[in-house]
């Protein structure tokens, strides 16, 4: 499933990126403490911690960043194209900050040990500022996908950039970045061979200061949640079991980390061993993963709200494809074309590839055969014809009755373990019923309308 690849890679990349941002803030804070003579051991810790930051965030983060671009272009090139076309100068600005972040970081890595405290603080402050502004610009683009705001009316760039979820998302990510950096610091301290136990304990208490803003997370999360469109909020609060589950995982993991930080690390000044620190980092990753899954999923059925559906079709194109057919002009052959028993199943496979494959497999993760496994043939036809009402986070079916029937037969052929021969069904009455269901469903998203058959 293409969407699973980019989703998994994206979660990992975002975690590393937030670690890079928070790590800069932590090291700048520690370098300031060292320069003021308040924490002499901070300089030694900063040098060691920065090596971890470089190896993990700079190297692995850069690789996953390239991987994100590669998988995005393969999975949803039209979405990426729209984002670049709309925000190309914003993205160019972000790149300059990213370049400054990397230059400052490598300068500190290469020359930091030979510099005085003031010069070290300048480099770390430069790194931290650049990394946060990189987040600032990227956050505007990503939050625009969910809440384009007034951009929908006239295409104004800044109306889209400073959209309704821009500020809550930015503040939430900033707090998360600081928390992740502090958790990684606890892990680094627990395995450090150069620091005494008393030094580790004092450094850990100072690092825990970056966990204190987690007390604001419930407010920031609520602000972000209620800035979402009503339908998107409904997926999170029960409309989609998967999104509700991941929302619970993210909130629960954040709560556990926050409680341990405030009660254990800040109030009681507990020490942390390697096992506990590893568990805290794992919880931090779970919280980040849950939040990213919800952010991505809440856009459904769009990749850019009201503009581009998750299968890369525009709302206007759905209307046209209902009349012309979704794969009428598809020039690409099917892989292993000879295995299909007839032209109808072959047509269904093309429809699946064009409309469904970005989010679904046939028999694996999120497999259509499993999802439709308990439906009768008539139920499958009805549910697909009224897809946006069957599952409101799905886009409307885009295609003719013949294509829908072919898709149903393809699903049935896969469910029957690919028998040969396989009957062709082109009953006029069945196609006429499918046409009526498609007309009743309409072409608008499911959350905006009710199907004609149930309207009062």
From TrEMBL:
<feature type="domain" description="Cytochrome c">
    <location>
        <begin position="344"/>
        <end position="411"/>
    </location>
</feature>
<keyword id="KW-0472">Membrane</keyword>
<feature type="transmembrane region" description="Helical">
    <location>
        <begin position="166"/>
        <end position="191"/>
    </location>
</feature>
<keyword id="KW-1003">Cell membrane</keyword>
<protein>
    <submittedName>
        <fullName>Cytochrome BD quinol oxidase subunit I</fullName>
    </submittedName>
</protein>
<dbReference type="Pfam" id="PF01654">
    <property type="entry name" value="Cyt_bd_oxida_I"/>
</dbReference>
<keyword id="KW-0812">Transmembrane</keyword>
<keyword id="KW-1133">Transmembrane helix</keyword>
<dbReference type="InterPro" id="IPR002585">
    <property type="entry name" value="Cyt-d_ubiquinol_oxidase_su_1"/>
</dbReference>
<feature type="transmembrane region" description="Helical">
    <location>
        <begin position="89"/>
        <end position="109"/>
    </location>
</feature>
<feature type="transmembrane region" description="Helical">
    <location>
        <begin position="246"/>
        <end position="267"/>
    </location>
</feature>
<dbReference type="Pfam" id="PF13442">
    <property type="entry name" value="Cytochrome_CBB3"/>
</dbReference>
<keyword id="KW-0408">Iron</keyword>
<dbReference type="GO" id="GO:0046872">
    <property type="term" value="F:metal ion binding"/>
</dbReference>
<feature type="transmembrane region" description="Helical">
    <location>
        <begin position="49"/>
        <end position="69"/>
    </location>
</feature>
<feature type="transmembrane region" description="Helical">
    <location>
        <begin position="121"/>
        <end position="146"/>
    </location>
</feature>
<keyword id="KW-0349">Heme</keyword>
<feature type="transmembrane region" description="Helical">
    <location>
        <begin position="6"/>
        <end position="29"/>
    </location>
</feature>
<dbReference type="GO" id="GO:0009055">
    <property type="term" value="F:electron transfer activity"/>
</dbReference>
<dbReference type="GO" id="GO:0020037">
    <property type="term" value="F:heme binding"/>
</dbReference>
<keyword id="KW-0813">Transport</keyword>
<keyword id="KW-0249">Electron transport</keyword>
<feature type="transmembrane region" description="Helical">
    <location>
        <begin position="203"/>
        <end position="226"/>
    </location>
</feature>
<comment type="similarity">
    <text>Belongs to the cytochrome ubiquinol oxidase subunit 1 family.</text>
</comment>
<keyword id="KW-0479">Metal-binding</keyword>
<dbReference type="InterPro" id="IPR009056">
    <property type="entry name" value="Cyt_c-like_dom"/>
</dbReference>
<dbReference type="InterPro" id="IPR036909">
    <property type="entry name" value="Cyt_c-like_dom_sf"/>
</dbReference>
């Amino acid at each position: 499933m293409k969407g699973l690849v980019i989703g998994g890679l994206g979660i990992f990349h975002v975690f590393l990126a937030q670690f890079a941002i928070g790590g800069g803030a932590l090291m700048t804070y520690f370098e300031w403490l060292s320069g003021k003579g308040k924490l002499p051991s901070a300089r030694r810790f900063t040098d060691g911690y920065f090596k971890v930051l470089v190896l993990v965030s700079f190297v692995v983060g850069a690789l996953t960043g390239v991987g994100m671009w590669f998988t995005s272009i393969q999975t949803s090139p039209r979405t990426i194209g729209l984002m670049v076309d709309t925000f190309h100068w914003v993205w160019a600005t972000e790149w300059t900050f990213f370049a400054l972040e990397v230059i400052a970081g490598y300068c500190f890595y290469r020359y930091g040990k030979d510099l005085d405290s003031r010069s070290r603080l300048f480099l770390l402050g430069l790194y931290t500022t650049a990394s946060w502004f990189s987040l600032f610009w990227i956050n505007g683009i990503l939050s625009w996908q969910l809440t384009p705001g007034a951009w929908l009316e006239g295409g104004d760039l800044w109306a889209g950039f400073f959209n309704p979820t821009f500020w809550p998302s930015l503040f939430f990510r900033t707090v998360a970045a600081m928390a992740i950096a502090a958790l990684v610091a606890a892990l680094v301290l627990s395995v450090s061979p150069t620091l005494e136990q008393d030094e580790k304990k004092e450094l850990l208490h100072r690092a825990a200061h970056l966990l204190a803003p987690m007390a604001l997370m419930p407010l920031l999360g609520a602000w972000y949640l209620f800035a979402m469109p009503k339908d998107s909020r409904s997926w999170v609060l029960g409309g989609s079991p998967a999104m509700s589950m991941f929302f619970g995982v993210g909130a629960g993991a954040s709560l556990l980390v926050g409680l341990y930080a405030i009660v254990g690390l800040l109030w009681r000044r507990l020490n942390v061993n390697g096992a506990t620190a590893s568990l805290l980092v794992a919880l931090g990753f779970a919280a980040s993963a849950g939040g990213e899954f919800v952010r991505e999923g809440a856009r459904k059925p769009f990749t850019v709200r009201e503009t581009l559906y998750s299968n890369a079709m525009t709302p206007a194109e759905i209307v046209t494809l209902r009349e012309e057919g979704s794969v009428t002009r598809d020039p690409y052959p099917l892989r292993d074309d000879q295995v299909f028993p007839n032209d109808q199943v072959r047509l269904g496979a093309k429809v699946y590839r064009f409309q469904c494959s970005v989010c679904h497999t046939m028999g694996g993760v999120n497999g259509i055969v499993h999802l439709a496994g308990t439906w009768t043939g008539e139920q499958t036809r009805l549910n697909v014809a009224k897809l946006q009402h069957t599952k409101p986070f799905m886009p409307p079916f885009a295609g003719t009755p013949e294509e829908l029937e072919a898709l149903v037969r393809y699903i049935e052929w896969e469910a029957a373990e690919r028998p040969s021969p396989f009957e062709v069904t082109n009953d006029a009455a069945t196609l006429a019923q499918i046409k009526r269901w498609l007309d009743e469903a309409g072409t608008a998203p499911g959350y905006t309308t009710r199907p004609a058959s149930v309207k009062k």
